[in-house]
Design brief:
About 9% of the residues have low confidence. Helix content is 23%, strand content 31%. The longest helix is centred in the N-terminal third of the chain and has 21 residues. The protein has a five-stranded mixed barrel. Strand 4 and strand 5 form a beta hairpin. It has 139 residues and is α+β, with helices and mostly antiparallel strands. It is elongated.
């Protein structure tokens, strides 16, 4: 019977060695080096790589989900929560503006200067539009 148990010894040794290596792995993967600048907790600060969109022309060619902050005018309503927006250059883009973001008690027309903030939605078969997350009346 002793011969039957000896063939499990190499398997047991390999399992023990593997467990030892795996249990030490988290200690190897942690960064414990010196930090500089504002990051004092050892975190990594990742800079924004996409420039902010500030004109309709930039929004029309921007990648999906790019941040847009544009000043101009809402010139007409296309359908419920969809409008045409014109910036100072005269270019227009469709915006999706949920009613919940409209300022209560204020009227906006084509002469009201506003600043919209939102994300560019890129489409395959139609021009980009902007999903507005915040609107501010400037006048």
């Amino acid at each position: 019977m002793a011969g039957k148990n000896t063939r499990f010894v190499p398997l047991l040794c390999a399992a023990t060695a593997l467990f030892g290596v795996l249990s030490a792995a988290p200690a190897i993967a942690q960064y414990t080096g010196q930090t500089t600048g504002a990051a004092t907790t050892g975190g990594v600060v990742v800079p924004s790589f996409a420039p902010q969109i500030s004109t309709v022309a930039q929004a029309l060619t921007a990648p999906d989900d790019a941040t847009a902050v544009i000043e101009g005018y809402i010139v007409n309503r296309l359908k419920h929560e969809h409008y045409t927006f014109r910036d100072d250059t005269g270019r227009t883009i469709e915006i999706e503006l949920d009613d919940k973001y409209l300022p209560p008690g204020r009227q906006i027309n084509d002469k009201t200067r506003v600043r919209i903030s939102g994300e560019v939605d890129r489409h395959l078969y139609r021009p980009n539009d902007i999903d507005v997350k915040h609107i501010e009346i400037l006048q």
